[in-house]
């Protein structure tokens, strides 16, 4: 009887481990960024990840600052892909190029934001985080995913164009001193051909799409 009890406990655990292993293998072939995905965004030229934290700018808007960091395992570099306010996107649906989205900072629940304030180091357009505890802000939180494919692919750089001001999300190449010593300045620039304006999807949780959401050539998978 004791041996039977051991087997009845172990078999479900082995099945769970097998399922997790299969999903991990399938995840390595993930192609698209989807609605509900939580990810890190790396600037392809600077090799820095988009970052925020509960530290406010000392000038400009005084809102929560947005920077870029080299470290890969900082939880303050996670962003959730969401629909813009008043619209919905189905969880797991691949994001089409030229779609308007919000990027919500996971740790503070505020949205990536821009406006006509001046950035503190380079004098470009300021980028901040804005919104309440439910992630609700205003139209300054909306960004268009600009890419050359039909969908936002994980293996291809994209640009983010601010809907209200038409500025492109970019690094300036400058770094802050205290209290965020060494972190890179993030700004809005007027031209998509300017330096430091390409972003690549990196580490994250890529939400599982369903069959009817995908292009005919896509696989179904998740990644953590």
Report what the structure shows.
By secondary structure, the protein is mainly beta. It has 2 domains: 1-30; 32-210, Trefoil (Acidic Fibroblast Growth Factor, subunit A), CATH 2.80.10. The chain is built from 1 helix and 12 strands. It has one helix spanning 2-27, and strands at 38-43, 49-56, 64-69, 79-83, 100-105, 111-118, 125-130, 143-146, 159-162, 168-175, 184-189, 199-205. The strands form 2 sheets. It has a 6-stranded antiparallel beta sheet with strand order 9-8-5-4-1-12, with no helix packed on it. Strands 2, 3, 6, 7, 10 and 11 form a 6-stranded antiparallel beta sheet that branches. β2 (49-56) and β3 (64-69) form a beta hairpin. The longest helix is centred in the N-terminal third of the chain and has 26 residues, at 2-27. It is globular and about 45 Å long. The N and C termini lie far apart (39 Å). Residues 14-29 and 216-224 have low confidence and may be disordered.
- Percentage of residues in helical conformation: 10-25%
Strand line-up in the sheet with most strands: 9-8-5-4-1-12
The total strand number stands at 12
Task: Indicate the proportion of strand residues.
Answer: 25-35%
Q: Mind telling me the C-alpha Rg?
A: 20 Å
Q: How many structural domains are formed by the residues?
A: 2
Order of helices and strands: HEEEEEEEEEEEE
Shape verdict: globular
Main beta sheet: strand number and arrangement?
Answer: 6 strands, antiparallel
**Can you name the CATH architecture of the largest domain?**
Trefoil
CATH topology of the largest domain: Trefoil (Acidic Fibroblast Growth Factor, subunit A)
Q: Given this structure, which CATH class of the largest domain is correct? A: Mainly Beta
Mean pLDDT: 85
Count of discrete alpha- or pi-helical segments spanning 4 or more residues: 1
- Through-space gap between termini: 39 Å
Uncertain residue ranges: 14-29, 216-224
């Amino acid at each position: 009887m004791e041996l039977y009890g051991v087997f009845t406990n172990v078999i479900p655990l082995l099945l769970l481990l097998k399922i997790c292993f299969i999903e991990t293998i399938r995840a390595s072939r993930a192609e698209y960024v989807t609605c509900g995905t939580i990810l890190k965004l790396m600037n392809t030229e600077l090799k820095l990840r988009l970052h925020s934290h509960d530290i406010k700018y000392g000038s400009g808007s005084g809102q929560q600052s947005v920077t870029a960091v080299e470290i890969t395992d900082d939880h303050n570099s996670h962003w959730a892909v969401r629909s813009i306010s008043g619209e919905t996107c189905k969880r797991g649906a691949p994001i089409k190029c030229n779609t308007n989205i919000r990027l919500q900072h996971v740790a503070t629940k505020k949205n990536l934001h821009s406006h006509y304030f001046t950035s503190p180091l380079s004098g470009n357009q300021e980028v901040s985080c804005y919104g309440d505890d439910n992630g609700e802000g205003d139209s300054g939180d909306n960004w268009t995913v600009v890419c050359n494919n039909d969908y936002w692919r994980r293996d291809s750089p994209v640009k983010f164009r601010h809907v209200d001001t038409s500025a492109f999300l970019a690094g300036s190449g400058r770094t802050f001193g205290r209290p965020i010593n060494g972190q890179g300045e993030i700004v809005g620039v007027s031209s998509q051909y300017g330096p430091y304006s390409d972003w690549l999807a990196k580490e994250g949780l890529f939400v599982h799409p369903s069959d009817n959401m995908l292009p005919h050539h896509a696989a179904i998978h998740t990644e953590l």
